[in-house]
Fold each of these.
Amino acid sequence: AQKITQTQPGMFVQEKEAVTLDCTYDTSDPSYGLFWYKQPSSGEMIFLIYQGSYDQQNATEGRYSLNFQKARKSANLVISASQLGDSAMYFCAMREGASNFGNEKLTFGTGTRLTIIP
Amino acid sequence: EAQVTQNPRYLITVTGKKLTVTCSQNMNHEYMSWYRQDPGLGLRQIYYSMNVEVTDKGDVPEGYKVSRKEKRNFPLILESPSPNQTSLYFCASSPSAGPRETQYFGPGTRLLVL
């Protein structure tokens, strides 16, 4: 079974609109971290936002917020007031705790390609 | 500036010619890792290191070697590259190996093996 599922291969959004990128995850670990990364066409992986499994509040970082619904195992990224520079590939990733003790590697989803239309 | 650096950024080589991709971080991080990114397969872990002299295999270690002699450096060695190792490679580091620790990535190395 996929540990991280991103069901939207591509999205087109009008500039200045808000956009939600979906991410669901699968783990039996009580302790885990969820991360979103942005990969522009230049190729680098840019960390955007983090949500811990024990965090009570949804994470926010500037225009980025994470809609964390633990019972549904979803961690959707919300970008408010989208800009042309937001056009990129977005990856959801998870870092598990106990089951990977000693190597809490990142497990990535397949990504969503977001295109912002002027 | 806190960062992870990789060199070279782009490399074209031929089958069998040994190469090394360097990775260095200036954040005093204990955990370092190598990933490769391939279309349709996403990012997969090659090797990781918990600390100096402590390394172990990830999901796709065949054809690769690593070493961690200093905390800041984690080179990836391809002893005899083959075309199926053509990929985009990322080095990443985090303060430790905990599930809450953010991994920060280098800029990537695009490798083409002919």
Note: The first strand of chain B starts at residue 4 and ends at 7.
Amino acid sequence: SQQGEEDPQALSIQEGENATMNCSYKTSINNLQWYRQNSGRGLVHLILIRSNEREKHSGRLRVTLDTSKKSSSLLITASRAADTASYFCATYDMEYGNKLVFGAGTILRVKS
Amino acid sequence: NAGVTQTPKFRVLKTGQSMTLLCAQDMNHEYMYWYRQDPGMGLRLIHYSVGEGTTAKGEVPDGYNVSRLKKQNFLLGLESAAPSQTSVYFCASSLGLAVNIQYFGAGTRLSVL
């Protein structure tokens, strides 16, 4: 019963271009997080946006949250080959317990 | 600072065999989690713990058991491995409620033949 569902499933772009990934979820949340997973490695936390925030920036990352549409987007600007990875959104709802619920992820490939 | 360490990194089992996966964290986190990751399905929570001596079931707990005898360690056991348990297993830990940013280990790749 995954809450977060990412779109697209896979994305291929050229180095220097921007990459946008979207996440939709089903119920109320306290916060939404984005994680990155390089091939064969564990997940690494990128950014967290709280339910009362609409936009957040961290370096080349920009996250938006629309709680009315139950959706979020992750924008990576000026992408680099090193950004090639899978990206997951995860929702945190305290009513659901002390757990994050992860989506299936978006595979991003940045070609140099 | 090692963070979250998982052992072993790889393992091949025969159907019916048992094994234990070990997760250790050195960040003094209260919460620890075991996930499995299968192609196209993201991460699914197996079991988790909100403190030493406590455990709870996640989304897919059947066929697994866990123990949290020490705050820094969280063990995942497979009593009788099945081919359906072939997966990559990740352990994670977090400081606690309200934010719940999780820190992940590098994973254990398990094949059950």
Note: Chain B touches chain A at residues 4, 31, 33, 35, 40-45, 48, 50, 56, 58-59, 90, 92, 96-107 (CB under 8 Å).
Amino acid sequence: GAVVSQHPSWVICKSGTSVKIECRSLDFQATTMFWYRQFPKQSLMLMATSNEGSKATYEQGVEKDKFLINHASLTLSTLTVTSAHPEDSSFYICSARDRQLGGNTIYFGEGSWLTVV
Amino acid sequence: DAKTTQPTSMDCAEGRAANLPCNHSTISGNEYVYWYRQIHSQGPQYIIHGLKNNETNEMASLIITEDRKSSTLILPHATLRDTAVYYCIGRPTNFGNEKLTFGTGTRLTIIP
């Protein structure tokens, strides 16, 4: 099946610094990718929709200047958490759909753990 | 997307069939029923989806009631590796909609 990969799998950063998380579709092209956040023992919450070649669409309550999304190619979207704070510590997950297969299945990356200290 | 309701948790003995119910009484005619699972500290994994007919693949079977108001995911021979949170999601059939709304899911624990 289609594969979506994230990097890094986990990262620790200091408060006030920025950290970038990559989401790649390994064997298919994705014009749209989605970024989710998941706090411990909670469900996934959609943060934003990443659109190749255009601005991302953010869900209500998500600060676009804090969570910068770039979708520069058909296989890569990046999420940058700027001026990170401990409350940003979470599990970040991306997803994408393989349109080439003609199917309707969405695949998820392995997730990236962010710890802000 | 249709709102779905699932039991918070379930236990199942190893080797037995695990039957996970989902109510989606507000589902519309153009919404699929999708099932994903999330093993601890990993991204969600696609299991199966269906519209009207029952579906089966190498992982599971999906039984959808005739009125489409509920469905059951069946793992025929549960193993310890099937311990995970299982999400039932309603999703429009139009290919332009790739946004998934996750509920709280069912935490399935397989008992040795």
Note: The two ends of chain B are 36 Å apart (CA to CA).
